[in-house]
Amino acid sequence: MNKDFERGLSSLLEHGGRRSYIMYHGTTLEAAQEIKSHGFRRSSDGMLGPGVYVSRSVDKAKRYPLKPDPDERLAILKLKVRVGKVKKIDKQGHPLQKTWHRNGYDTAWVPPNCGMVPSGLEEDCVWDPNRIEVLDMWEVERETNDSSMCRIV
């Protein structure tokens, strides 16, 4: 694991999550504009249950949405996220995988290369959308049919 990443996570956990982190969210351009204007809404479910899914990895954000309409324009939102109290979820079937919020956590964190995500990239789920501030929005363009290949335009 990257040493800077480990230090960042240690800092995040040691300080009770009082810090803010730059994170990213990939979506359609239309949805990004709506989020920028009106804020995020918590999803109803997902790998970590309800919440707003973000990542400190822009490469992870570039993969979303997973199956966009070929005619849709895509975007990445650059965010400032106040993570609060963080729960590390590092395996499928973790006892708090979908109940971390009911157990006093504000954010669930899936570390990179733990086997939970096929890409091996880290992922976070934030319960309260008010913890997320949109800093910037970039339109992205798919370079091929491979959803992991896009560029910021």
From TrEMBL:
GO terms for cellular component: cytoplasm. It comes from the Eukaryota. This is Uncharacterized protein LOC108263802. It comes from Ictalurus punctatus (Channel catfish). The gene is LOC108263802.
